[in-house]
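Hi support team,

I submitted a single chain yesterday and got back a structure, but I'm not sure I'm reading the token output correctly. Could someone confirm the output below corresponds to the sequence I sent? I've pasted both exactly as they appear in my results page.

Thanks,
R.
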Amino acid sequence: MVTDRLSGLPAYSEFVAHVETAPPARPRWPFAVIVAVGLALILAPIITGMFPRAARGEAMIDAFGPYVSRSSIDGYRDDLRVLDGARANVLALRSQGLEQGRYDRVDSFVRDYPGIRSDISSMLDAIDANRDNYRRLADLPPIGALPWLLALAGVILTGAGVFGFRRAAAGGRGVVWRSIAALAALGLIAISLAGGLFSAASAGRPLIEGFRPILTHDEVREVQGYFVTLVAADGDLNSRYTGAIRAAHPDADLAGIAALEARWQPMTSRFAALIGTMNDNIDNFDAVAALDEATKPLRFTAFRGLGWFYLAPGVVVFAAAAAGLREPGKERQ
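Hi R., thanks for writing in. Yes, this is the structure output for that exact sequence:
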């Protein structure tokens, strides 16, 4: 009897146009891709040691700035020509029989200078040959900031991917999180293209190979030893050696030695600054070389792939963020 009464009540569906159901889950794979790329961007600089190595690379580029220029290299070559002239002056005096006695330090200079000149010239040639490569690397955004830009983009993408995944699971399209991911992706693309990363890609390896022979502890010690020889010779040339010759032969031609004396202080100051910079940056150079070789297991060097480290993730994330945006439906968040 009670059942008969209840059966006469109107059904719920008679009061509503349709029965509400939970919205179906949206595709979540775009957000999974975004999370995967984000995590890769965070881990890659850590695994390759990019943070400390890039910072060392930036320090090295800044330190070599005053020396990797045409005017600087020309100045060093002019210094060598003055040394050439001083040695030629000594040999001319010797051939004329005008020397007064023997001077071991001057003899060492005459004997050793051709080798010294050859080695220093090779060092200057290596710097000169890589001026354009250096300039392209120096024109990059600060190298020390590059791993932080990757990691920052990685953090943003990981967060956007996680929250977007949850929103898609609840039936929303996660437009806000897609938009955040897309903006981060555009930032990566902009850095790769506007930051000159592709033009610098071909500069890194030649610069490393060009500087490798000169930025070693052995080479720096050898060059430092050259100046022990030169300093000792200059001390004799401009005191006892020329004094004795002038006393015996007032009209002797000492122009080459005099030119060395006039240029000696600025010359030694310039060379000391260059050699000091080389010595201070050997470890920085080794760090840059190690960074470049960190990706060798992938069959390319890091500088060669520098632009792609930003462009490829940016394109992938942007495509993933755009996927599904045009699906029908009113849900926008």
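A quick pointer for reading it: The radius of gyration is 35 Å. Let us know if anything else looks off.

Best,
Support desk
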